[in-house]
Write a structure and sequence with these properties.
Elements lengths: L2 H19 L7 H27 L6 H31 L1
Helix pairs in contact: 1-2, 2-3
């Protein structure tokens, strides 16, 4: 339940602070949206886990939010890497 507040803080604030102050190219819109969707999925999954704990019940589908959230963040990283490679290739030619 405590992770619900750490996902947006660590994955959102710290990562985008690094992008702001470091000499790293900015994310394109697709990578940005997928990355934020991954953070939102992890946050909602953590919130539902807290609700289930308070209610005293469990669901066998809780792990799905974690897997989908992490998959979205990995996919956003891959699309960002491809866009950086494409941008570098366009600058060379």
């Amino acid at each position: 339940m405590y992770l619900m507040f750490l996902y947006p803080l660590l994955l959102g604030t710290l990562v985008f602070t690094v992008f702001t102050f470091a000499k790293i190219p900015k994310m394109n819109r697709l990578s940005f949206n997928i990355y934020n969707s991954g953070i939102a999925t992890l946050t909602v999954g953590s919130c539902l886990h807290g609700i289930f704990v308070i209610a005293g019940t469990a669901s066998s589908y809780q792990f799905v939010y974690t897997y989908i959230g992490i998959s979205l963040i990995i996919f956003a990283s891959i699309t960002y890497a491809f866009s950086c490679i494409k941008e570098k290739h366009a600058q060379i030619t």
